[in-house]
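Q: I'm writing up a methods section and want to include an example of the input and output format. Could you take the sequence below and give the corresponding predicted structure tokens, formatted cleanly so I can copy it straight into the document?
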Amino acid sequence: MQVKLNAGNLLGSNNLVYRNFFSNPDISNGITPPSTKDLLYQKGKDVIDYEAAPGRTYSLSISYRF
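A: Here is the clean output for your methods example:
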């Protein structure tokens, strides 16, 4: 007999899809690529397109062999 317990999303993280608005502060040198910090979500600056909170999931399975 085999018993399995699975749990997912234990920390309760959300899924977030957003549009990143990057403004280039130094236009005189041309376009400079954004830094990693600029690409992360910034509350109040970036626009959220979709947010989901899937919640925690649990499953239990029992199997046996003769």
